[in-house]
Amino acid sequence: MTLQVYKLNSVNLAFRKKELSWWLWKNYQYVLAFYFAIQEINKDPHLLPNLTLGFQWYNAFPSEQFTFWCLLHWLTGNTGTLPNYTCQTQGVQVATIVGTTSALSTEFGTLLELYKTPQVSFVFVLKLTYGPFDPMLNDKKQFPSLYQMASSDSSLGIAMLSLLLHFGWTWVALFVSDDMKGEQFLQDIQAEMLKRGVCVALTVKLPVTKRLYQESDLTFMSRIQASTANVHILYGDVRALIAVDISVEFFLTMGKVWVMASKWDIVVYETDHMLHSLHGGFSFSPHREEILGLKDFLKTVEPSLFPEDFYFNKLWLLHLDCSPAGSFYGRIGNCSPNASLEFLPPYIDLMTLSDFSYLVYNAVYAVAHVLHAILMEKMELGSLGEAAQPMILPWQLHPVLRKLQFRNSAGDNVSMCEPRRGVARYDIQNVVNFPAGLSLLEKIGEFTYTSSHEQGLLIHEDLIEWPAAFKETPQSVCSQSCGPGFRILPQEGRPICCYTCVFCAEREMSNQTDAEQCVRCSEQEYPNLNRTHCLPKLVTFLDFEDSLGTALACMALTLTLLTVMVLGLFVKHRDTPIVKANNCNLSYILLISLLLCFLCSFLFIGRPNTATCLLRQITFALVFTVAVSAVLAKTITVVLAFKAMKPGRTMRRLLVSGAPNAVIPICFLIQLTLCAIWLATSPPFVDTDAHSEHGHIILLCNEGSITAFYCVLGFLGSLALGTFTVAFLARKLPDTFNEAKFLTFSMLVFCSVWVTFLPVYQSTKGKVMVAVEVFSILASGAGLLGCIFFPKCYIILLRPERNCLEGFKKRTCSRRF
Do 178 and 208 meet the contact criterion of CB atoms below 8 Å apart? Predict the structure, then answer.
């Protein structure tokens, strides 16, 4: 009993580019894989027992016209090609295996679907295609009898993008066939590119050719050379790739890395040098294991085993220069005992199983398993029919085939169920060309993708052979990467992969390549000079160990000692006329307040804390209020002393009663009230300034209420201005009896210091602001001390003859001890 499987489009022989008399015999491996599967099945006692699986195969020419002629020749038998007529009588033909292009499968499927009618019911047309997966062929309404052996390549775009991202390639060109399948792939991969930040530099729709010799538009090759992308993705139907295959030899693009959907060995010819455009490219093919026994079969098979195969004899004769006994050509030459397909020229390489040959092998086994299941079912039901010709109706095979699952000899699971789910695995191969036409597909990695969207990429970079134009791993980017310390700035009107690099701002940093935004350092950190990472800021303040703090502290200590010396001098000479002349008690109060003023400057130096922050401004305001009000009291005393010399007792009464001294407590109480309100509402507190000095955090005292601070300072300024006015009006009094001029000059110095202080204080930050205030305190206090008391000390120490009653009248007297 013989069941026949018809194989169409199994060879698809094509002319070589260099010599049209040479055939591309590599595709003959499809026939050998077909032979091997049939042989295994017929020897298997458990699969189709007592049945012989026969076959016929026809060539698919480069011209679809001649391929259709072969198809009609098979359908009508050995007579003329008459459509819808057959005279076949041998065997039961149950299935066809077609493929290599989805276009052929579509066109053949439309024709073969007609033979499901009862008109030719003895011919069952079950079509299995071993070409690339095409979603259009899954339409069961249009192609109810067509099944694809290849699994869906919906994960192929994700696999390719994983390879691109592994090498940092974000600027790529796409070459896809100008058909529905190419358009679908283009949409899918562009969507993934958008998600992963990969940009398309160039998109080319490859022209689809109907015949090998048909003229094609090759202008797109000039665009390849002009493209700035160094990586090209190639995906398309075989007929679309013919144009690329022919043109890559004449338009060398050695500076490009080609990433192909598979090793398109049906059209991609080998070359005899390493300057081939596809050398160093990558090929993605579905993962598969080796078929057990296939290599041994290929080593031992010879034309005598298949004497009716004209092409096998021709292959043997052309490339081994001999013809074995019983061949079609007769005895030509003497074949050595070890003559084998293993010794064919390297550009043919029939020993390495191709993807399509693997699918042919699975397709034959799929037919055998379906037939086995149907026949076993009929045998159990006793409806096998005539033993010589079992009756198998078309509709009986479809339910079984749709649920078919089996494990082939390679250990891989083969399933016809739709949708096919599970793990998608791709072998990543490196295309390497050697001299003398030797080509090698070196496996350099794998990619896995599960239904739960988990993926993994394994690459052995040390095994990769790059194109001749590259000495190291090539780059393919629109713009060079922005290193750490920079951020990317997209260019208007261009893809997101095209950008310029901008240095991070003053307080920002980036520690990664191609950062979209710089990261701002925290308040306690600052970026280094390269803006690559943040460094902790150093805590600083106006410290005694600081040079500025040391200078101010020494100045304050010196003025304090001078004040103590002046006070001691005045106490010692308290009975002399010059000390008594302007109320010695006011002089003591002024000297003590100046002493406290100099000492309060130490509150501004050192590490700030809550106590010093509360005391420094309050103490400064109160003691200076006392000092200035004491100067005012001295000035009023001088004025009253001269007024009292005129007739009338009112001025004398005021002078004798000590009324001028009341100015001091009154002004002190007013200032004390303002300070109390300040402390009650918004007192000063310890604060930090992280911006005034680069790389430093300055500890300082925040004034709390700025309004209260300036009210206190304003009252002190008003008091100083009033004192200066009174002293200025009394400046022309005779200097023999008063010190009005010295008081006027001292207040002029005092007011000048604090008028200068205000703008300088506002324009500085951090510890410099504190230093300005300390200096103003010391300078204004020194002005009062020097202008008021230096002339008196001069007279007491150096001109004692003037420090007597006669001296005031005659300016002369003897020195007394």
Answer: yes
For the question of whether the overall pTM of this predicted structure is more than 0.90, the answer is no
3-state SS class at 767: helix
Q: What's the pLDDT tens digit per position in 540-562? A: 888 888 888 899 999 999 999 99
| Range(s) within the chain of domains with CATH label 3.40.50.2300 | 2-152+290-304+347-415
pLDDT at residue 409, as a whole number: 87
pLDDT of 766 above 80: no
Tokens 């109320």 belong to residue: 583
CA angle 807, 810, 814 (to 5 degrees): 50
- Going by the DSSP 8-state scheme, the letter that residue 789 receives in this structure is I
Rounded Cα distance, 781 and 628, in Å: 10
Question: What pLDDT was estimated at residue 778?
Answer: 92
* CATH code 1.20.1070.10 region(s) in the chain: 547-810
CA distance 116 to 370: 18
Is the distance from CB of 687 to CB of 539 less than 8 angstroms? no
Question: If DSSP states are collapsed to H, E and C, what string results for 283-314?
Answer: EEEECCCCCCCHHHHHHHCCHHHCCCCHHHHH
Q: Give me the pLDDT at residue 271, please.
A: 45
Tokens 């693009």 belong to residue: 253
Q: What class is the 2-152+290-304+347-415 domain?
A: alpha beta
Closest CA to 174 of 114, 126, 232, 214: 232
Mean pLDDT of 99-104: 61
The CATH superfamily assigned to 547-810 is: Rhodopsin 7-helix transmembrane proteins (1.20.1070.10)
φ/ψ region of 278 (left if φ > 0, alpha if ψ in -120 to 50, else beta) reads alpha
For 487-500, b where at least 16 C-beta lie within 10 A, e where not — what string? bbeeeeeebebbbe
Judge whether 498 and 479 are in contact, CB under 8 Å.
yes
Residue 646 has pLDDT above 60, yes or no: no
Q: What is the DSSP letter of 480?
A: P
Q: Is 708 helix (H, G, I), strand (E, B) or coil?
A: helix
Q: Is 79 exposed, middle or buried (0-12, 13-18, 19+ CB in 10 A)?
A: exposed
Q: Does residue 330 or residue 521 have the better pLDDT?
A: 521
Whether the link from the prior residue into 419 is cis, omega within 30° of 0, is yes
